# Entry
Amino acid sequence: MDRTLEGRTALITGSTSGIGHGIAMLMAHAGAKVMLNGFGKPEEIAAARASVGSAMGGGDAPYSGADISKPDEVRAMVADAQARLGSLDILVNNAGIQYVSPIEEFPDAKWDAIIAINMSSNFHAIKAALPAMRARNWGRIINIASAHGLRASPHKAAYVTAKHGVVGLTKVVALEVATTPITSNAICPGFVRTPLAEAQVGPLAKEHGVSEEVALRDYLLEKQPSKRWVEVDDIAHMAVFLCGPGSGGINGIAFSADGGWTAS
Ligand code: NAD
# Structure
């Protein structure tokens, strides 16, 4: 892999699993020093730190256990990243959760948690990271939104609201940094093969009385014309590209990687 991110530093939220871990691995292989964040069993966190550390050339990757639903912890995590990495060039707001329910039964606590984790954390992290990016005159902000940042689906009130908000925030930040060498972009994946998405297959199979294979094709991927998962690596390569050479003019865009979902 080309070392296009040599000398860069990156903080990736929710990088103990799924898309975030994939981005961390690829950024490390591309030469960046990466700090991880996210939950998990101690052995899962240790494995994530070891794998990304090894991609960085040895040792464990630095890690913050911040709960990003809490603004104070987000601010402390950004400060910690700046201190431990020596700078923070790249911020990837990736951590997210999902909850699916008709709006009349949607628990208030789930709404609050999804808005806090999937959307407000991006605001708090960007606000905390931008001053040092401006001072160093370089920066990359990447928000992992979703096809649900551009399209709605029933029963996902909080998630769709939060992801539309993330796309809006991405554009506002892009305009505010437009005259500087900092960029702000979003990636909008369709269904990606990760624990968060795979967990939705079982309940759909049960609800419709079909096998998991049929539930995946006919219900979960109903709107994804490719009828197959987007892979973590597809998203990771896009994130690395947005930080590498030739990315300076790309600002305020919501990039779709959704198997054709938003083409219609
Ligand atoms: P995942 O469940 O595999 O990983 C989510 C990560 O976020 C984990 O590391 C988890 O520990 C972390 N996290 C959750 N709550 C947190 C909190 N309060 N504080 C800190 N970390 C927290 O999920 P994923 O599928 O890799 O999703 C990553 C992002 O991609 C999410 O924002 C999700 O909405 C988005 N996305 C996923 C898909 C998909 O199909 N998988 C599609 C579109 C968008």
User: Anything to note?
Assistant: The CA atoms of residues 141 and 184 lie 5 Å apart.
